[in-house]
Design a protein that fits this description.
It is a single chain. This protein has 480 residues and is α+β, with helices and mostly antiparallel strands. It has 3 domains: 16-275, Bira Bifunctional Protein, Domain 2 (BirA Bifunctional Protein, domain 2, 2-Layer Sandwich); 292-388, Anticodon-binding domain (Rossmann fold), CATH 3.40.50.800; 409-477, 2-Layer Sandwich (Translation Initiation Factor IF3), CATH 3.30.110.30. It has 15 helices and 23 strands. The protein has helices at residues 16-26, 43-62, 76-79, 83-89, 115-125, 170-190, 237-242, 266-275, 304-307, 309-321, 336-345, 356-360, 382-407, 415-424, 437-447; strands at 30-32, 39-41, 66-67, 73-75, 94-99, 102-110, 134-143, 157-167, 197-200, 212-219, 225-235, 246-247, 253-254, 257-264, 292-296, 326-328, 350-354, 363-368, 374-378, 409-411, 428-433, 450-455, 472-477. Strands 3-7-8-14-11-10-9-22-23-21-20 form an 11-stranded mixed beta sheet, sandwiched between helices. A 5-stranded mixed beta sheet has the order 16-15-17-18-19, sandwiched between helices. Helix 2 crosses helix 6. The longest helix has 26 residues, at 382-407.
């Protein structure tokens, strides 16, 4: 199939970074705000986030969690109670020191994450084992003062959900941590058609203050990894720091085990880079703002408003009535060719063309965004055919992404081979590691690759790729 490119979008092969920015801006997902690193999510992009949020919220609630909301401002004294935690976030913290024209008695951090404010609140709420487990999630914004920013992938302010839970023992906390990790895996693959690796982070890569951190890692089109969601077993560290105690079943004082977990608008960045092409965005049907756009074709003679639009509106109503997110492009200042290119750039899964000849034949034309396959469908069967087509596209996007990951995952046995692959191809590299943080740091310094995950399950023994010592397989990659 001949490759097509958009004149408005830089080809991936020429400049991947500029291609990504072009897609974000030209596809109407976001714009730059007046403060560096703070993006404006435009209505078209926000609708994608809403579709993602709606499904994730359902999954979170199905696991027994409820939503709440906690304050944006965190007193400095609260944040500093857990030293390892505050040290991890200190470089990214934004502080408020003046309020109402007067200097504040105590600086307030704009939340970089909410462990401090939530754990200090839980200390007031929990007094007995009967109060456990606490299973709360919040949808909120956070601020991390990033030096290098890129829309969706790394921004000063971003939107996310963050769960914070308390449990009676370590086993329950670990079960919760892994349960939510699997929720993220399923969401990424089932909704975003974005396959992920699942595993544990090394000590140097884990969340500040966590006992153990787990993550889902996706592979982007340029061979770099994207950490798309994390789940943390926080142990009893935060219970110690914030004085959370309760009377256990034996009426003894005890400290709960806590977890936290989150995903963010960063997943939209992953979505763009997993499926986009040189024409622009490619949206999986389950999260697309519009699943189908209707483009009316004007007659050679006569007014489109009189000859085609009435039938187009009937089709629109029929599709919406069947639960399809449909949009009618009735803009009269643009020709159909412009509209085709515009909606291809915006990644709408299916284009429905309807002209006078189609109306005569009681049919329409459906064109897929991912492979541009075209078919003629009777109008009466359009809704059913579209629903089937959207499910097919969703599945095929996932399989195509899985094939890409497989083709860009390399097992290496020597450090020279490791460096060559990372320099020429990137992608996921499966290699042995002896567990030594110094080896991990050496690889990062020399290749910019980090250990993205230690795979779950029984360890697969493999000689350390650097030292040759006994080790286990881990997955390396350069990352966003």
């Amino acid at each position: 199939m001949e490759e097509r490119v958009s004149k408005e979008i830089t080809p991936k092969s020429k400049d991947y970074s500029q291609w990504y920015l072009d897609v974000v801006l030209k596809a109407d997902l976001a714009d730059y705000g007046p403060v560096k690193g703070c993006m404006i999510i435009k209505p078209y992009g926000y609708a994608v986030w809403e579709n993602m949020q709606r499904d994730m919220d359902r999954r979170i609630k199905e696991t027994g969690h409820v939503n709440a909301y906690f304050p944006l401002f965190v007193p400095k004294s609260l944040l500093e109670r857990e030293k390892e935690h505050v040290a991890g976030f200190s470089p990214e913290c934004a502080w408020v020191t003046i309020g109402g024209g007067a200097e504040l008695e105590e600086p307030l951090a704009i939340r970089p994450t909410s462990e401090a404010i939530i754990c200090s609140t839980y200390a007031k709420w929990v007094g007995s084992w009967r109060d456990l487990p606490v299973l709360i999630n919040q949808w909120a914004n956070v601020v991390r003062w990033e030096k290098v920013t890129r829309p969706f992938l790394r921004t000063t302010e971003f939107l996310w959900q963050e769960g914070h839970t308390l449990h009676e023992n370590e086993a329950e906390a670990e079960e919760e941590t892994l349960r939510m990790l699997d929720v993220y895996r399923a969401f990424s693959e089932e909704q975003l058609a974005m396959p992920v690796l699942v595993g544990r982070k090394t000590e140097s890569e884990k969340f500040a203050g966590a006992l153990r951190t787990y993550a889902i890692e996706a592979l982007m089109g340029d061979g770099r990894a994207l950490q798309a969601g994390t789940s943390h077993n926080l142990g009893q560290h935060f219970a110690d720091a914030y004085g959370i105690e309760y009377l256990d079943r034996s009426q003894q004082r005890a400290k709960p085990w806590s977890t936290s977990w989150g995903t963010s608008t960063r997943m939209i960045g992953g979505l763009i880079m997993s499926h986009g092409d040189d024409l622009g965005l490619v949206l999986p049907p389950r999260v697309a703002t519009y699943q189908v756009v209707i483009v009316p074709i004007p007659p050679k003679k006569g007014d489109v408003a009189e000859t085609v639009l009435p039938k187009a509106r009937e089709v629109l109503a029929m599709l919406k009535g069947a639960g399809v997110r449909a949009h009618l492009d009735a803009r009269d200042q643009f020709q159909p060719g412009y509209k085709y290119a515009d909606w291809e750039m915006r990644g709408v899964p299916v284009r429905l063309e309807l002209g006078p000849k189609d109306i005569e034949k009681d049919q329409c034309v459906l064109v897929r965004r991912d492979n541009r396959a075209k078919e003629f469908v009777p109008l009466a069967g359009t809704a059913a055919r579209l629903q089937a087509l959207l499910e097919t596209m969703q599945a095929e996007l996932l399989e195509r992404a899985r094939a890409f990951v497989a083709a860009n995952t390399t097992r290496v046995k020597s450090y020279d081979e490791f460096k060559q692959v990372m320099a020429e191809k990137r992608g996921f590299i499966v290699a042995g590691w002896n567990g030594d943080p110094k080896v991990e740091a050496k690889v990062k310094e020399e290749t910019k690759a980090t250990i993205r995950v230690i795979p779950m399950g029984e360890p697969v023994e493999a000689p350390c790729v650097v030292t040759g010592e006994r080790g286990r397989e881990v997955v390396f990659a350069q990352a966003y």
